[in-house]
Design goal:
alpha/beta, UDP-N-acetylmuramyl-tripeptide synthetase, 515 residues, Udp-n-acetylmuramoylalanyl-d-glutamate--2,6- Diaminopimelate Ligase, Chain: A, domain 1, Protein-Tyrosine Phosphatase, Chain A, single chain, tetrahydrofolylpolyglutamate synthase activity, magnesium ion binding
Amino acid sequence: MKTLRELLAHVAVVQIIGSLDQPIAGLAYDSRQVVPGGLFVAIAGHHVDGHAYILQALARGARAIVVDARHQSEHTLEGATLIKVIDSRVALAPLAAAFYDYPATRLRTIGITGTKGKSTTTDLVSQMLDACGKTTGLISTVDFKIGNRRWANTTRQSTPEAPDVQALLTEMVANGCDTAVIEATSHALSASWNRLSGCYFDVAVFLNLSHEHLDYHGTFEQYRADKARLFAMLDEPAVRAPQSTSLSWAIVNADDPHHHFFLEAAPAKARQLTYGILKPAEVKGTIVRSGPTGSLVHVCTPWGEGELSVRLPGTFNISNALAALSVTLSQEVPLEQALAALSTTHAPRGRMEPVERGQPFEVIVDYAHSPGSFEQVMGMLRPLVTGRMIAVFGSAGERDRAKRSLQGAIAGRYCDLLILTDEDPRGEDREAIIEQIAAGARQAGLRPNEGYLCIPDRAQALRTALAKAQPGDLVLLLGKGHEGCVIYADHAIPWDEAGEAEQALRELGYGRTEA
């Protein structure tokens, strides 16, 4: 076990009252997870203030307490060391990295950021590197993975809290992984959350940038700067293993006008690599053909030329695939082997995921839940559909209310029929949420009971859509994607969007001949 003094080596401390020489048996930011001899980090959150649970942590055997100097004024703790820090949330990451003995120094660590496509690209990179002889771990919105073991991320955090990230990296090392692929969100990268400090990234990847999460970041400029921290972290001062001499890489999407900003954030020692479809790029893709089930792309790279097969629809997925190819090539995988690996990859759960039970129409599950993602997904799919496009979706309660009518209006422009339903109403009136979406649909010219239906019960809504589908149609099930429940005010119901669609198709008589 490390001592408290060792854990605090990279933490900005304001005051210490007590001994620093005792060994620390555990690290927790939730008082219920404190173990005897452990360290409790009190964090003032949006809904709960950890400083209110210090006594509970002490009762569970905490030997030391870290408090935020801005939120805690007490100067002594009986039987435990008190450490006041400038910002306890920011301190959590270096404490966690030290407690787990810097596992990232024993891994090749790849971080992927952007507004859209992070989960898909992160998963594609992990799949490709595994197919090319690496052993990867994965941290994404959808799943966690360590070697051959994969399980759902049920935390509803794309990037978990720092102790959870470091614990996962430690498991990866213990289970023989050589590479970690991490979905790096703007929240996790921001200086005020700092969840990814101590990951010592070797590869930083930028996908794209659009106006989102401004409720948290305040301005678009701050949002961009927070995402760009991933590239600055390629130069994070480390406790680096002496043998870690391989190149760091800054990989960016040349088609995005902000890509120069991210390259400028990277240290001079990082090797730069661009990819793209529209603009000049080192890894350049030219679309040969594209359809509702995937695309064929000719690629020209510094390592040679070849044909890239993408088993996902849409230009944006070609871009995601080029990002994954670029990462794989940067890890000294031959081009021919990388292209072969990419041709075997599949979408993560809930990301443009087809549901097939032999029905004469297409069904796709996707996580799209914002006006921008609606525009992207529906705009891409509409020209590929020979029949009608039917969309089933809702909008989250206690979240951005302004987007609801925009979702309805965008869907109304592209789709022939909307079925408006629950997403996660939480404490809001479910029917009021649906009416706000319906207002946008009416602005797009859709009429109630003809162009759109309001069916709050999501299972019923989904079944109605599938029952109405005809040969050549496309049914889009949007908003839930991989998520495992629908949240109401005082309860949540288990939910599996793709599984529910499969069951509904079976009820309609499709696929019954299968074993």
